[in-house]
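Next comes one such specimen:
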Amino acid sequence: MKQLEVTGKDGILLVARVLIALLFLIFGWQKLLDYSGTVQYMTHAGVPLPALATVIAIIMEFFVSVAIILGAATRPLALLLALYTLATAFIGHHYWTMSGMAHFENEINFYKNISIIGGLLALYVAGPGCYSLDKMWQSKTGP
């Protein structure tokens, strides 16, 4: 019975990793496929150093999300992605400077980012579970 509990928890952690990273994976892939369009968007949005910001966004959203899904360096990357998400909340969804529908839409997106940070912090605390590269690497190197 104890083994079933561990397996259930680890299965849920796997699903959680996939679900928390899915949003980043989708939008990171879009940025990767349309680098120049993303740079233009970042320029229009007033993001400093838009070409560098685009590279950072692609790395964080696509490559880090793939690593989290696979359970590779899960804890440090979950924390790093949480910090990235906090930065994007303040840079991209500054609803307090807006009015009307833009205020409403950006307020929702700001607090969605804050909620995502909560999930990433929970993943940081819980770790990746047994179904992960982290666990596989740990078992090869010892206890």
